[in-house]
Amino acid sequence: MTQKPRTAIIGAGKVGSALALLLKARGYPLAGIASKSFASACRLADLTGAPAFDSPLPLVDSAELVLITTPDREIAPVSAHLAEAGAYHPGQVVAHTSGAHSADELLGVRQAGALAVSIHPLQSFADLETARRNLPGSYFALEGDAAALPLAEQIVSDLEGKSFHIRAQDKPLYHAAACIASNYLVALLHFATGLYERFGLSRQEAFTALQPLVQGTLNNIAAVGPVQALTGPIARGDIPTLRGHLPALAEAGGHLAHLYRTLGQYTVNIALEKGTIDHRQALALAEILKEEPPHEQPESDHGLLPAGQTGRPAADHAHRL
Q1: pLDDT recorded at residue 302
Q2: Mean pLDDT of 170-189
Q3: How confident is the prediction for the chain on average, in pLDDT?
Q4: φ, ψ at 299 (rounded to 5°)
C-alpha cells in the first residue's frame, strides 16, 4: 500500500480511541468506528470526524486495515462473527492489539484471504489522555503473517514508536514479563505503602515519601541496568538487617513475610550476579530467607485489615509528610 490504508476501528476503549485519534492525525483515513456500545462509538466518532456504526459489518467491508481493539476475550468471537458474515476479503490486513494473544486469535481472517497480525503497544494506559501521550515513543511487539508486518512496522513508525518481532508461541511469556514490569510494580508499591500505613502514614503520604526513591531506582536502572543498580542489604550481604526485617513482617502478616522472603531469594541471585556477595554469603542469605515451618509462624490477621485500619496506633500527625 503506497497510500495510508483506509482504516476501521472496532472497539472504542482507551487503546482504540488513542489509536484512532493518533492515526487520524498522521493521515490515515478512517472508514469509521464501531464498538460494543454505540454511544462509545459515537463519542469517538465525534472526536475523529469519522462515522459511527452500530454494526461493524459494513465498516469492515469498506476498509483496507481493520484494527480490532476490543478486550482480549472478545477478539476471537468478534473476528469469527465478521468472518461468518463475509466481511473480510483478500488484500485486507486485520490486526488486534492484545499482548497475550497471537494473530491466530483473528478467527476466519486467513480463510478469507486476508492477513492477520498482532500489534501490541508495550505501555499502560490509565485513560485516553495518557494513552495519547504515552503511545508515541513506546515499543510495540509485532507478530503474525510476514506479508502484514511491513504495514505493521509502518503504523508503529507513524506513531513515533519502535517495533520488534516475536513468535506466536512467545506471546504468553512476553505478556507475563510485561505484567511483571507494570502490574507487579503497582502491587509492590501497594505492598510497601501498606507497611507504612502500619505506623500511621496514609497510602498517599507513603507514596509521596517513597516516590523519589522509586524514581531514583528507575534512573539507576536506566543508567547501568538492573543488576548494577541493585543496592540494599542483600547486595551488601547484610544478614543482621534482614534478621531485623523478618519479625516485623511476620507481625504484619504471614503472607507479607512470605512475599518478602520470595522476593529476597530472587534478589540473592542478582547480588551474586553483580559480584557484591560470594557463594558463601549467598547461601547464608538464602538460609535466613528460607520459609519458617508453619507451626513457628506467629498467628496474625494475615495482613487483611478493614479499610482504614492499620493494626497499629496512628503515628503523631506532626511527623507526617
Answers
A1: 41
A2: 96
A3: 91
A4: -65, 145
Q: Which long-range contacts (CB under 8 A, 24 or more apart) does 279-282 make?
A: 281/237
Do residues 22 and 133 lie in contact, with contact meaning Cβ atoms separated by under 8 Å? no
Number of residues that make up the chain: 321
DSSP letter assigned to residue 112: G
Please check the confidence at residue 1 and state whether its pLDDT lies above 70: no
Cα–Cα distance, 256 to 239 (Å, whole number): 19
Residue 314 has pLDDT above 80, yes or no: no
Is there a contact between 63 and 72 (Cβ–Cβ < 8 Å)? no
Q: Summarize pLDDT for 184-193 with one digit per residue, the tens.
A: 999 999 999 9
- Using CA atoms, how far apart are residues 10 and 211, in angstroms rounded to an integer? 38
User: In the predicted model, is pLDDT for residue 295 greater than 90?
Assistant: no
160 backbone dihedrals φ, ψ, rounded to 5°: 65, 30
Nearest to 20 by CA among 44, 43, 51, 3: 44
Sign of the four-CA dihedral 260, 262, 268, 270: negative
- Show the DSSP H helices in the chain as ranges: 14-25, 38-48, 56-61, 72-84, 128-134, 149-158, 171-197, 203-228, 233-236, 239-252, 254-274, 279-289
Q: How far is CA 157 from the centre of its chain?
A: 21
| HEC letters along 134-157 | HCCCCEEEEEECHHHHHHHHHHHH
Q: Is residue 140 over pLDDT 60?
A: yes
- Dihedral sign for Cα atoms in the order 194, 200, 201, 203: positive
Indicate the residue type of 129. E
Cα separation of 196 and 192, whole Å? 7
Tell me the mean pLDDT in the region 9-28.
Answer: 96
Query: CA-to-CA distance for 83 and 87, rounded, in angstroms?
Result: 6
Q: Has residue 65 got a pLDDT over 60?
A: yes
